Amino acid sequence: MAKANLPLLPLILSLLYIAAGTAESTAAPANFIKASCSATSYPALCVQSLSVYAAAIQKSPRQLAQTALSVSLDRAQTTKTFVTKLTKFKGLKAREYEAIKDCLDEISDTVDRLSQSVQELKHMGKARGPDFLWHMSNVETWVSAALTDENTCMDGFAGRALDGRIKASIRARFTHVAQVTSNALALVNQFAAKY
């Protein structure tokens, strides 16, 4: 009886080896993302928003930074669409409408700056030395400016007169965009420091 199962042993061992290799190959990118995100301001959000891209990121600091910027851009574009719809609401107070318009301007600037950053990182190729530093400086500047834009939006809602659902919903969305953008900037800085 034991001899009948012996020819299956190499097959079983091969399958176990392949399964272990697959688990290890998917764990490595996830661990890389988790380790990289630990240095960000919002590590749980960082891991949650980037883990779905682990297969594409692998263990590449550049791909991690690129993906983080793309996630930030996506969230900013979604927020821009939301704020655009708010400008069309009927019955807004004049000051509320102006604050929403200001937020639309700010999030539009954020989308532009994050788009520039994504493109700059994509098109810098294998730049080294001064060229690499110049490209990275551009990206860091634009992402920092995007963070300022996101924070400036809420200035228009200062005071209790504008408290309410619109202010709360804009604050929630802009806070989320600011957090993923902050994480993206931290990951861009990590990438720049490695080269």
UniProtKB/TrEMBL annotation:
Pectinesterase inhibitor domain span: 28-187
Signal peptide feature range: 1-23
InterPro entries in the record: Invertase/methylesterase_inhib (IPR035513), Pectinesterase_inhib_dom (IPR006501), PME_Inhibitor (IPR051955)
Domain of life: Eukaryota
SMART domains in the record: PMEI
Record key words, sorted: Signal
One Pfam family this sequence matches: PMEI
One example GO MF annotation: pectinesterase inhibitor activity
CDD domains reported for this sequence: PMEI-like_3
Alphabetized NCBIfam families for the sequence: PME_inhib (TIGR01614)
PANTHER family associated with the record: PECTINESTERASE INHIBITOR 7 (PTHR31080:SF87), PECTINESTERASE INHIBITOR-LIKE (PTHR31080)
Designated name of the protein: Pectinesterase inhibitor domain-containing protein
